[in-house]
C-alpha cells in the first residue's frame, strides 16, 4: 500500500505542471489516503478552480476503487498525538503520516520534503 498526500490530489485535479504525473499515480493499485487529505485537497481545488471542479474531484475520489480512505477518528487522532510528540511535522502532515503508518504503507507520494525525515520513504510523482 502507498499513501497519497493532499498535494498530489490537488495537482492531479488542477492545471499544474505535475498534473499528468499525479494522475498517473492515481491510476495505480493499492493506494491509501485519509479523510483530512480529501478535505484539504477539496478545499484547495475549490479555491483554485471553483465549485464545479470541487464537486468533480469528490465524485472522482469516491469512484476510485483503488483508493482506501481512512477516516479521522479517535484512533487516528491518538496516533497523530503520539507522532506530534515524536516528529517535527505540522498537524495535517502528522495526520497523513499517522494514516500511512496505520495502513502500513511502504511510501508516501508527496512533494512535501518534510516527509523526508521519516521512516516511510517519500516519492515525488
In short:
Helix content is 54%, strand content 14%. It has six helices and five strands; from the N terminus they run βααβααβααββ.
What does this structure look like?
The protein has 125 residues and is an alpha/beta fold. The protein has six helices and five strands; from the N terminus they run βααβααβααββ. It has helices at residues 6-12, 19-26, 35-49, 51-63, 74-86, 91-102, and strands at residues 2-4, 31-34, 67-70, 107-109, 121-123. Strands 3-2-1-4-5 form a five-stranded parallel beta sheet. The longest helix has 15 residues, at 35-49. The chain is globular, with a radius of gyration of 14 Å. The two termini are 16 Å apart.
Amino acid at each position: 500500500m502507498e499513501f497519497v498526500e493532499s498535494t498530489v490530489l490537488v495537482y492531479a485535479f488542477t492545471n499544474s505542471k505535475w498534473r499528468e504525473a499525479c494522475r498517473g499515480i492515481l491510476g495505480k493499485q493499492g493506494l491509501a489516503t485519509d479523510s483530512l487529505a480529501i478535505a484539504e485537497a477539496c478545499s484547495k481545488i475549490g479555491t483554485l478552480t471553483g465549485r464545479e471542479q470541487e464537486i468533480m474531484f469528490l465524485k472522482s475520489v469516491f469512484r476510485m476503487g483503488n483508493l482506501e480512505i481512512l477516516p479521522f477518528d479517535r484512533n487516528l487522532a491518538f496516533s497523530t498525538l503520539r507522532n506530534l510528540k515524536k516528529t517535527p511535522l505540522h498537524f495535517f502532515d502528522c495526520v497523513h503520516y499517522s494514516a500511512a503508518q496505520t495502513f502500513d504503507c511502504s511510501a508516501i507520494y508527496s512533494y512535501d520534503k518534510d516527509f523526508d525525515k521519516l521512516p516511510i520513504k517519500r516519492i515525488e510523482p
